[in-house]
Amino acid sequence: MADIELVNSLVKGAYDMHIHSEPDVLPRKFDDIVLAEHAIAAGMAGVVLKSHYICTADRANLINKMFPDIKAFGGLVLNNSMGGLNPLAVDVAGRLGNKVVWFPTVDAENEAKNITGEHDDGKPVPYWMTIARAMLAKGIAGEPVKVTDSDGKVTDAARQCMEVIAE
Q: Mind telling me which Pfam families this protein's record contains (predicted)?
C-alpha cells in the first residue's frame, strides 16, 4: 500500500489534465462544484474538465469565478456531437477560454467496429458505448471520424483543426 502522505504530497500543486465530472451525458461520481472542493482540499493547482460530448469551457469559467483558489480549464473533444473535426468548434471554444482539445474518442474511426458490435467479445461494454449504439440504432450516430486518410496522411479537416489550435 502506498504511503498516503507521499500520495498526498504528489498532488499538491498538480493539475489533473483529464477529469470527468457532471453535468455530463454519462453518470459521474461528482459534479464540477464537488470536484473543485476536492481539488482545493488536496492542494491541487487545477483541473481540466473533459466530456466526450460537449465543450466544458463555460463550466470551467464558472468554477474559476466560484473558486478562486483553483484554476479550471475547459476541454473540447472533436466527436460527432461537436461536429467531428470541426475547426469552427475549436475556434469558438478557444474564444470561451478553452485550453485543451482532444481528437475524436468515442466517435473515432478505430472505435467503429466496437460500436457496431463487430468485435463483441461478450464482456460488458462501457456506458458510453451503450449511448453510441443507441444513436446508431436511431440513425443519428454520424460517420466515424477519420483523422487520417487511406494513405495514412492527416486529413484536411484534422489539419485545419490543428491550425486553429496553434493560434
A: DUF6282
As beta bridge partners, residue 145 has 108
- What's the CA gap between 139 and 159, in Å, rounded? 28
Helix (H, G, I), strand (E, B) or coil at 8: helix
Measure Cα distances from 97 to 16, 100, 126, 157 in Å. Answer: 17, 10, 30, 22
| Distance (Å, whole) CA 162 – CA 164 | 5
- Residue pair 61/93 in contact (Cβ under 8 Å)? The answer is no
| Percent over 90 (pLDDT), the chain | 68
Give 95's Cβ-side CA count (13 Å radius). Answer: 6
